[in-house]
Amino acid sequence: MSERSPAPGGLDLVQALVNTVDLESGADSLDTAEGRTRFGIAEGGVAEARELRESLRVALLAHAGHPPHRAVTPLGELLAAAPLVLTVAASDGSAALAPADPRPLLSRVAAAVAESLIAGTWMRLKACEAADCHWAYYDRSPAGRGRWCSMQVCGARAKMRRYRGKGAP
Q: At residue 157, does pLDDT exceed 70?
């Protein structure tokens, strides 16, 4: 949907996961072996991946000031099941949070969220305001007030609806 560049750091994983479903068409890449392989999801783990995806979407909608699109398990509850460890490099003493087990998607997402909190980028990952879209995008606007994944598509549609709603000739 979006022509925007990917989110920085580990947020690209979160953004890619949220964007595995096209709400307008209903196409879900987690329905394909290729789509699941991209995230290391076994066929039996699709329901959990979808639950995580929609909980992330609710958080990203909240970042943009929008209500949840549906009831979901709170993201904090899901991420609490993914322990992180603090790693310190012997070479230079740099530290990072990492998943205790890097294989599960939940652990990698938890590490990405933690990394983005430290970097100050978490709140800039948002979901598009358009109800038939909710595509994840990284808001690079100076004020951090982006509303749509694409000004050319979702933004233009919203502005046209607003214009028509005013009773324009």
A: no
Listing DSSP states for 67-98 in one string gives --SS----HHHHHTTS-EEEEE-TTT--EEEE
Q: Which of 72, 84, 95 is nearest to 18 (CA)?
A: 72
Q: Which pTM value belongs to this model?
A: 0.84
pLDDT of residue 169 exceeding 90, the answer is no
Question: The dihedral of CA 10, 11, 15, 18: what is its sign?
Answer: positive
Type of residue found at 38: R
What is the chain's length? 169
Question: Residue 164 carries which side chain, given as an amino acid letter?
Answer: R
Average pLDDT, integer, range 21-41: 94
- Count Cβ atoms below 10 Å from residue 43 Cβ, excluding itself: 8
- Convert the pLDDT of each residue in 99-148 to its tens digit: 988 889 999 999 999 999 999 999 999 999 888 888 899 998 887 777 65
Burial class of residue 83 in the structure, from the number of CB atoms within 10 Å of its CB (0-12 exposed, 13-18 middle, 19+ buried): exposed
Q: Which long-range contacts (CB under 8 A, 24 or more apart) does 99-106 make?
A: 103/40, 104/40, 105/17, 105/39, 105/40, 105/41, 105/45, 105/49, 105/52, 106/48, 106/52, 106/78, 106/79, 106/81, 106/82
